[in-house]
Design brief:
This protein is of the alpha+beta class. The protein has one domain: phage-related protein like fold (Alpha-Beta Complex). Helices cover 26% and strands 31% of the residues. It contains 7 helices and 12 strands. The strands form 3 sheets. Strands 1, 4, 8, 9, 10 and 11 form a 6-stranded mixed β-sheet that branches. The chain has a 4-stranded mixed β-sheet with strand order 6-5-7-12. Strands 2-3 form a two-stranded antiparallel sheet. A hairpin with a 6-residue loop joins strand 9 (233-238) and strand 10. Helix 1 crosses helix 3 (97-120).
Length: 284
């Protein structure tokens, strides 16, 4: 009798870990503007991401109740790339749920690192101007540097803050009476997050921003039916609260005689509005 593997077990583990691990790792993407869809796209396809830069006027005692399209909506062109995270699964990993989960989580983390790198690549001094903070201290002199970050994006109605682990640790609560780092902490209503790396500038240790500073887009990769039919499993998992979808595939290969799996999506990011929307921390 030939050896078989339970493809649904692998798929269930990928789906469950993606929903938790990837959603947690990419939570900070919520502070940017996005157009995440299930549309099928190819590498270098473009998406027009809408940015609402001004709302319609609020009327007093109106006589005409039609909105009339008063919103000001700009569009940012985002070019998509195919992000593909493949991995092989050994017989030992298939036989151990714990080993399988560790393998899957490791590859999910690698994909998360790549997505975050793409998202933060446009955050540069060339795009947004000189850094607002150049020292690794947010709490000294009565929180002067933290205040400078907030002031730089003060016109935004939804400010977010992302910090390196070292800077984030300066804001962590030290007692039950301390301010928790939930949405709204220190005036950053979109939240305070941390990230282990930033791609835009070599010395970047964080940034404060408005959603319209960065425009992101994501879509489903184009896979020919002749290829898809060879997969044991080919499904999509959508990250709740973020809306981004990741496709995962599981198949047995006659080339390496292993069970293979992949995580993939089309993803891209570009600079959006550049005036008063981004405050960079650069401690190079």
């Amino acid at each position: 009798m030939p050896n078989t593997f339970d493809s649904s077990l692998v798929a269930d583990s990928i789906s469950a870990q993606t929903k938790t691990v990837l959603a947690n790792r990419l939570a900070a993407l919520n502070i940017f503007a996005s157009d995440f869809s299930s549309d099928v796209k190819k590498p270098k396809d473009t998406v027009q991401v809408p940015l609402v830069t001004a709302a319609a006027s609020t009327l007093t005692n109106p006589t005409n109740f039609e909105p009339g399209g008063g919103n000001t909506v700009g569009k940012i062109t985002v070019t998509l790339d195919h992000l593909f995270q493949p991995f092989a699964i050994t017989a030992a990993e298939l036989a151990s749920g714990h080993r399988l989960d560790r393998l899957i989580v490791s590859n999910i983390n690698a994909l998360a690192d790549k997505i975050w790198a793409v998202a933060t690549t446009p955050i540069t001094v060339a795009n947004f101007g000189a850094a607002s903070v150049t020292t690794a201290d947010l709490t000294g002199t009565n929180y002067a540097n933290l205040k400078a970050l907030w002031a730089a994006v003060s016109k935004s109605d939804r400010k977010g803050l992302v910090l390196s682990p070292a800077l984030y640790s300066q804001l962590l609560p030290t007692s039950t009476q301390s301010l928790p780092l939930s949405a709204g902490a220190y005036g950053f209503d979109a939240g305070v997050f941390y990230a282990s790396s930033f791609s835009g500038e070599a010395g970047m240790a964080g940034f404060a921003c408005s959603p319209d500073a960065i425009a992101m887009a994501a879509a489903a990769p184009a896979i020919d039916d002749a290829v898809r039919n060879q997969f044991a499993i080919s499904e999509v998992v959508t990250l709740e609260g973020l809306g981004i979808s990741v496709q995962y595939n599981v198949w047995g290969s006659t080339a390496n005689r292993q069970v293979n799996a992949s995580l993939e999506l089309m993803f891209g990011a570009a600079k959006g509005v550049t005036g008063g929307t981004m405050a960079i921390i650069d401690i190079a």
